Amino acid sequence: MAKDPVCNMEVKESESKFKSQHGGKTYSFCSEECKETFEEKPEQYAAGAA
Ligand SMILES: [Zn+2]
Fold first, then answer.
1. Distance separating alpha carbons of residues 9 and 17, to the nearest angstrom
2. Does residue 50 carry a pLDDT above 90?
3. pLDDT attached to residue 24
4. Distance from C-alpha of 18 to C-alpha of 13, rounded to nearest angstrom
5. Rounded Cα distance, 38 and 10, in Å
6. Residue 33 CB contacts under 8 Å (≥ 6 apart), including other chains
7. How confident is the model at residue 47 (pLDDT cuts 50, 70, 90)?
8. For residue range 3-33, what is the model confidence (pLDDT) as tens digits?
9. 11 CA distance to ligand 1 centroid (A)?
């Protein structure tokens, strides 16, 4: 399981359609809205991601 860094919801990486790369890592999101939020300020959310 991956964690959506924006809303902290658990997301299955294999099932997520919403992904974004930052700092060499791939982040998965529950929705396009969370993905867009992340992409606006990736440094803010990426720091807290597992
Ligand atoms: Zn989310």
1. 15
2. no
3. 93
4. 9
5. 15
6. none
7. confident
8. 999 999 999 999 999 999 999 999 999 999 9
9. 8
* Distance (Å) from CA 1 to ligand 1 centroid: 13
Residue 49 has pLDDT above 50, yes or no: no
Give the whole-angstrom CA distance, residue 28 versus residue 17.
Answer: 8
Q: 17 CA to middle of ligand 1, Å?
A: 12
Q: Report CA(33)–ligand 1 centroid distance (Å).
A: 7
* Strand, coil or helix: 42: helix
Of 50, 19, 47, 22, whose CA–CA distance to 32 is shortest?
A: 19
How far does the centroid of ligand 1 lie from the alpha carbon of residue 34, in Å?
5
